[in-house]
Design brief:
144 residues, alpha/beta, 43% helix, 5-stranded parallel β-sheet
Length: 144
C-alpha cells in the first residue's frame, strides 16, 4: 500500500484487552478524541493474532501485556516474526510500568509504552497515527 492510499483509508485499530472495563475505557477515549477508524477487540493473544492476520495492513495494535492463553509479549514476538505483520504499529498499554517490561517491549520495536492511567493523554497522539489529523467520523463500536 502506498503512502497516498494511507491518507484516504482508515487504518484498523486492534485493541487487545481481556478486561472489559479497561476496554470500555479505551472505547470512551476513542469517542472523546473522535478517532474515526474501525476498532476491533480481542480478549487474548491467540484470538488477537488470528484476527490481526485477517485485518488489512497496515494496522495499529493497542496491546495489554497481561493476557490469558498467550501473553502480550508472546503475541508481540509472534507479530514481529510474521512477514505480513512484522511492521505492525504496536503500542503496549500496561497497568504498571516496570523497567524490565518497558525494555522488553522496546526490544520488540513497539511504538510506545503507555500506562492505562495515561491513556486519555495518549489519544491525541494516537489520533495522529490513525488519521493524520483528517476526517472526523463517528468511531465504530468495539467488536470481537
Amino acid at each position: 500500500m502506498n503512502l497516498s492510499a494511507l491518507k484516504t483509508e482508515k487504518i484498523p485499530v486492534l485493541v487487545v484487552e481481556d478486561d472489559d472495563i479497561h476496554a470500555e475505557g479505551l472505547l470512551r477515549a476513542f469517542k472523546k478524541e473522535n478517532i474515526p477508524n474501525p476498532i476491533y477487540r480481542s480478549h487474548d493473544g491467540i484470538e488477537a493474532y488470528e484476527l490481526l492476520c485477517r485485518l488489512p495492513q497496515p494496522c495499529i495494535v493497542l496491546l495489554d501485556i497481561s493476557l490469558p492463553r498467550m501473553s502480550g509479549f508472546g503475541l508481540l514476538e509472534k507479530i514481529r516474526r510474521n512477514e505480513k505483520t512484522s511492521e505492525t504499529l504496536v503500542f503496549v498499554i500496561a497497568t504498571m510500568g516496570s523497567d524490565e517490561d518497558r525494555l522488553r517491549a522496546y526490544d520488540n520495536n513497539v511504538a510506545g509504552y503507555i500506562l492505562k492511567k495515561d491513556v486519555e493523554n495518549f489519544m491525541p497522539i494516537l489520533r495522529g497515527y490513525c488519521t493524520g489529523g483528517a476526517l472526523s467520523v463517528t468511531p465504530q463500536p468495539l467488536r470481537a
